[in-house]
Amino acid sequence: MAGQPREPGRTTTSRVLAILETFESAPGPLQLTDIATTAGLPLSTVHRLVAELEQWGALQRGPDGRYQVGIRLWEIGQNAGRRLRDIVHPPLQDLFDLTHETVHFAVRRGTEVIYVDRIYGSRRVPRIARVGARLPLHPTAVGKVLLAYEEDWFREAYLAHALERRSRYTITDPRRLARELEVVREDGYAQTQEEIALGLCSVAVPVRAPRGDVVAAVGIVLPSVRFAEIPRFLPSMRGTVVRLEKLFRGLPQPVEQAIRTFWLGSSVERKQ
Amino acid sequence: MAGQPREPGRTTTSRVLAILETFESAPGPLQLTDIATTAGLPLSTVHRLVAELEQWGALQRGPDGRYQVGIRLWEIGQNAGRRLRDIVHPPLQDLFDLTHETVHFAVRRGTEVIYVDRIYGSRRVPRIARVGARLPLHPTAVGKVLLAYEEDWFREAYLAHALERRSRYTITDPRRLARELEVVREDGYAQTQEEIALGLCSVAVPVRAPRGDVVAAVGIVLPSVRFAEIPRFLPSMRGTVVRLEKLFRGLPQPVEQAIRTFWLGSSVERKQ
């Protein structure tokens, strides 16, 4: 029977999800054997389940026989993720019009920043953070903002773990990072200089939810040689934040709740 | 046993997919009972499968106990859909800079247009087509372009079916639509005037893949009162197309293939 698990405790659902999981980090389309190896499943099982997933549209088979995630999953995700993007996109687009620099809007998910929206033109900086990408909090300006305004227990827990080095300028000394986060709270903005990647600098400001907690950050990324220009972007960034916070205050409570759950996870997860 | 199907021929996989399916058209978060009813599954089954989906992150439970699609599915979809958007976004952004009108890039999927990317500011027209949305081909300018340049068998099959009326100006007479599609091929662009919704007009131009077939369209949407302005947008739209087609020609064949499979579906599907 198709639905019957072979190993005790491993359900068909967990196998289907293990198959989808292989595509999370896949650079491109995968062969059945790649999927089976990564998912740790028998090829016969993968063959059967992939066929069902393909038929529904969760996966697609290319002419070369390799599989990739299907457009139907993309559509379901778009539909789920759109609420917040629909709100933040116009003000972010106007910030781009003012600055013509790469601008983005990010939230914290666990110990990472996740990029909700990003606007850039052809004159753009190397793409480190695309929409949907996750990065650690400490080497990014949006992440520093989100860390600086988090509850003490969370910030202390984050600083207690080893700080991943992303470039030779990443701040990996917890005491130095803690001091910088104090300055972020005093100044109301965070900046980075080649801390996530050489050649890039960035600046970010906090965005507050109606209940007052900082839930997101608006950031701008520049070539690091233009680090000195950062202050001139702050007024327009703060103008964007004022508009965003006004829009958030106008949301019906259930909508705000749905947005919170999707982008920030359950309060349980936030405490983990 | 968790994985064991209750009804003959209905596998656990098909049930998991039926659960995800309930979220495709959901206006917001759903209760377990809503999911069970829509998916046609016993509440106990839904309860068990949803718990597994939630644990993995495919679904999320809000504080009100309702479920919605989880951010993890959004991330997988983003990752799968990004290749084409990464290519089209900068030229589209530059078209927006030139026009400051709502611009979009769409492909044909079956008998519908699907919006791959869309750029708009705060001065925007009513949102009919968001990224990920599907619309019929005949009432939209991008759709008319994709229909006009399709193979005869497809166009004839499309025209042979009843043409859905979206507004009182939607062209539902197949002979009239066929004549207009000829004009689209002669002029190299399509336009609509209140055919998808009252108050809106639009214009679109074709985008060709390296092998020469029209696979996408670039469009601009305006308030219908500005219909007379449409011609002045054509030069910049054609400039955007030239850039896009150059970018597509520069793609490695496997990447172009992966993009085709994801966005256009298998050639089999295209023949259906």
Automatic annotation (TrEMBL), chains A, B:
One of the GO BP terms on file: negative regulation of DNA-templated transcription
Protein name per the record: Glycerol operon regulatory protein
Superkingdom of the organism of origin: Bacteria
Biological role stated in the UniProt entry: May be an activator protein for the gylABX operon.
Keyword Cytoplasm: no
UniProt cross-references to InterPro entries, sorted A to Z: GAF-like_dom_sf, HTH_MetabolicPath_Reg, Tscrpt_reg_IclR_C, Tscrpt_reg_IclR_N, WH-like_DNA-bd_sf, WH_DNA-bd_sf
Domain HTH iclR-type: 10-71
SUPFAM superfamilies: GAF domain-like (SSF55781), Winged helix' DNA-binding domain (SSF46785)
Annotated PROSITE patterns: HTH_ICLR (PS51077), ICLR_ED (PS51078)
KW Calcium (keyword) present: no
Gene Ontology molecular function: DNA binding; DNA-binding transcription factor activity
Keywords: DNA-binding, Glycerol metabolism, Transcription, Transcription regulation
Pfam families: HTH_IclR (PF09339), IclR_C (PF01614)
Gene3D superfamilies named in the record: 3.30.450.40, Winged helix-like DNA-binding domain superfamily/Winged helix DNA-binding domain (1.10.10.10)
